Amino acid sequence: MAEREKVNTAHLIVKCLENEGIKYVFGIPGEENIHLIDALDESKKIKFILTRHEQGASFMASTYGRLTGIPGVCLATLGPGAINLMLGVADAETNSTPLVAISAQGGLARLHKESHQVIDLVAMFKPITQYADMILTPQAVPEMVRKAFSTAKRDRPGASYLAIPQDIEETPIQEKLQPLEIDPISVTQPTASDIDKAIKLIAAAKKPVILAGDGVLWKHAEQEVRELSEELQIPVATTFMSKGIISDRHKNSLGVVGFMRRDYENFAIDEADLIISIGFSIQQFDPQKINPEKNKKIIHINMFRQDVDSHYNVTLNIIANIRASLQALLQALKSQEMHFSHRTAEIRELIHAELASGKESNTFPLKPQTVVYATRKVLPDDAVVLVDTGAVKMWMARLYQTYLSNTCLIDNGLSTMAWTLPGAIGAKLARPDKVVVAVMGDGSFLMNSQEIETAVRENLHLVIVIWEDASYGLIKWKMDMEIDHHNGVDFDNPDFVKYAESFGATGMQVKKPGEYLEFLEKAVTAKEGVFIIAVPVDYRENMKLINKLGNTTVRI
């Protein structure tokens, strides 16, 4: 049995995964991928994380990929197992997150006809990935696995998918097949002409603003964005997905754009005549909300040209490595002595005042501002907070002060509900030395709460905060805004403490003011165990916020 690890295709696939630097594979086994699961078990470099639902596996993989830059890997059997992966795979693709999904498929002799659990998976995955294919021969494994990872890690990251027929997985390897070498990544440089055009556009502007997207994170260009802001003395707004690119303590930080209606940050963008868009993609935020009159000049600095949108009418495209482009721009600006004056302090004061109102409130249920304030007060600067989709996202994205990149993770591509609980598992494996907190509504919580068992079984220290209002709060908010009433959004919840305890986790139910901060401090300092804190939230603040923003004006 000394040669067992080289016996079949499954072992070759695992060897290729090891070659890609994979440490974890998330998923659920099935009858058709038994050999692959067994080969993973034999690996000394990869740990298989058994999940309770394939959707959870895909969210764990995508979050791991988002934080490490190494494609997260999720695994399922054929048919329903593979289909269950699809939500997280689509989420990774729309969020530009590197991920490789692998599933079993029926044997080749079954693919030409109707057969039990067989469906055309490649056709299903193609629209939601950058690359999807089926391995039809063991000889193709090194090339196809390398292509899947290379594609997932390209300049605009995304998802790849491979299907492995059962009989191919079991096929003995007759020849010595080895993983392919990983080719070095080249750094594309901007042209001198483009940099010169950018300088002229900036010099002609009166009120330029930087809009930074998550492409800055892919290329680790946070320092260059900050330096550009300081060199020109212009403000920086980020998208939800790029919170932390510039610290909220920095005087040039405007906060985020992404709220469903105008927000404080938009006052600066409304008056801007030039948007220096860095690493931004229109999937992150509808450009109509930042350029409604289609009259702003836009410098688009990214690794790819943006899709056509009449509200994102680019004046200049600088398509090259983002860091290299910013470094060239900074070098050119040093001889220009160009500076601007923006009175952005008032915007920052409005944000801080709204957050401070939570500190001063002693009402129950807690105001959203109170929960955000307490969360920020307790957590260290480098804690990784995952914010789910819903009303909770609007409050956390707007008010949660973020000081480091990739410490407040928000899904604003597909904006999927229920990704944060399984995502927190992927985050903790990617950042084992950091505090990891998943923040979600009660609607999202029960969609993937089964993964609590996975976290407990893996002995992870996680904190899960449930904003409790017994409804789908964001939809209720939208209904109240659009039709002045709501319906079909309310539900009942279980006893969250007993529910947590049934998994072997610690449950805490906030019942009075002050308890949330106390419970969160206890959970964070415990250093081990899974903690679930349910905190009732008063979402009557939602419409108060809309009315307040509608009556606020700021001159920059």
Question: What is this structure's SSE topology?
Answer:
Elements: H1 9-19, E1 24-27, H2 34-42, E2 47-50, H3 54-68, E3 72-76, H4 80-94, E4 99-105, H5 121-125, E5 131-134, H6 141-152, E6 159-165, H7 166-170, H8 192-204, E7 208-212, H9 215-218, H10 222-232, E8 236-239, E9 253-257, H11 264-271, E10 274-278, E11 297-302, E12 316-319, H12 322-333, H13 345-360, H14 368-378, E13 384-387, H15 391-399, E14 408-410, H16 420-430, E15 436-441, H17 442-445, H18 451-457, E16 462-468, H19 473-483, H20 496-502, E17 506-509, H21 515-525, E18 530-536, H22 541-550
Parallel strand pairs: 1-2, 1-3, 3-4, 4-6, 5-6, 7-8, 7-10, 8-9, 10-11, 11-12, 13-14, 13-15, 15-16, 16-18, 17-18
Helix pairs in contact: 1-2, 1-6, 3-4, 3-16, 8-12, 10-12, 11-13, 13-14, 14-15, 14-21
User: Portion of residues in helices?
Assistant: 25-40%
Order of strands across the widest beta sheet?
2-1-3-4-6-5
Report the biggest beta sheet as strand number plus sense, adding barrel if it closes: 6 strands, parallel
Uncertain runs with pLDDT below 50, 5 residues or more?
Answer: 1-5
Query: Approximately what portion of the residues adopt beta-strand conformation?
Result: 15-25%
| Radius of gyration, CA atoms, in whole angstroms | 24 Å
**Strand pairing plus helix content: what structural class?**
alpha/beta
